Amino acid sequence: MSDNHSDYEKKLAQANAARLRQIERQKARLACPEYQKKRLAKQNDTQSRALERKQKRMSDPEYINEQREKQIKASEKLRIKESSPEYRKKQIAKKIVQAKIQQAKAATKSLSDIQTVKAVKRNTSSGMKGRSPTAVEKRLGNKIAGIGCICCLNKGWYTTDMQQQESTKFVSLHHVDGRTREWAHAKVLPLCAYHHDTPAPDKAPVELTPIHRGNKNEWVQINGTEETLLQQVYALIDEKPPWI
After folding, report:
1. In a shared domain, residues 140 and 120
2. Is residue 144 in a domain?
3. Would you say 186 and 230 are in contact if contact means Cβ atoms under 8 Å apart?
4. Which of 1, 133, 135, 149 can bridge 185 by disulfide, Cβ–Cβ 3.0-4.6 Å?
5. Is the pLDDT at 237 greater than 50, yes or no?
6. Packing angle between helix 85-127 and helix 61-82, nearest 10 degrees?
7. Alpha helix ranges (H) inside 128-174
8. Nearest to 189 by CA among 160, 231, 156
9. Residue 133 and residue 49: Cα distance in Å, rounded?
10. Which residues pair with residue 169 across a beta bridge?
11. pLDDT tens for each residue of 41-94
């Protein structure tokens, strides 16, 4: 049994060695400029002969007549098919189905557009009362939102992943000095929902409380004054407050 296994391994090794030698010979042949030149010449010769055969066939009167007859037969067949009442009925039914599909798509798109407009209006009316922010205020607001919740940051309550997630989705800007005064949209603090206007969930830390719909004095005692936090925010974004 062991002799058979040994013979099998020898044959396998010989076969692998032969295959590797063949691969090396093929690589050497492909790398040879003379071989490449002959190969290219052979390809060009083959293509030339094929082109000559095609040109000869295309100029053959018999072949031309055959192709013309085929076209005439195909046209006649299509004319008979299109003049059939059954075919016309099927085509009309297809067009009706396609029209209904297009109408359904248009109706769905219109409904989606209406819902989007309503959502924008609803968000605008509830969260963006007051004047529109200036270009400078928008730029500063975007940088400030990128910090993440300043209160959570000071408490060390979240990881880098959570900070990144908050800065892109869960941070809202708390206006310190209203929404209509000069630089109102620059005097903002980045807060998570629970530090801004949403009651804390069960089993949350006692210190987690919203500045709105909660006890603001208690919030200030826990997190610091809005003015102090605002100074910290501008230090973090490396910007000078524009109202100073």
Report:
1. no
2. yes
3. no
4. 133
5. yes
6. 70
7. 135-145, 150-155, 160-165
8. 231
9. 74
10. none
11. 888 888 888 888 888 888 888 888 888 888 888 888 888 887 888 888 888 778
Q: Are residues 143 and 231 in the same domain?
A: yes
Residues 231 and 140 placed together within one structural domain of the fold? yes
- pTM for the model stands at 0.46
Does any domain span residue 244?
no
Q: CB atoms < 10 A from the CB of 184, how many?
A: 18
CATH number for the domain that contains residue 140: 3.30.40.190
Is 241 contained in some domain? no
Q: Which residue has the higher pLDDT, 86 or 185?
A: 185
Closest CA to 215 of 206, 202, 227, 204: 206
Q: Which two tokens stand for residue 84?
A: 């059939």
Among residues 143, 156, 221, which one has the least CA distance to residue 188? Answer: 143
Q: Which residues pair with 189 in a beta bridge?
A: 174
Residue 171's domain comprises 135-236
For residue range 82-140, list pLDDT tens digits in order.
788 888 888 877 877 777 777 777 777 666 665 555 554 554 444 446 789 999 999 99
Q: Are residues 116 and 140 in the same domain?
A: no
Res. 203: pLDDT tops 50: yes
Give me 87's structure tokens. 């075919």
Examine the domain organization and report whether 181 and 219 are in the same domain: yes
Domains identified in the chain, total number: 3
Spell out where the chain has E strands. Answer: 172-175, 188-191
- Report the mean per-residue pLDDT for the chain: 80
Q: Percent of the chain, pLDDT > 90? A: 24
Cα separation, 52 vs 58, in Å, equals: 10
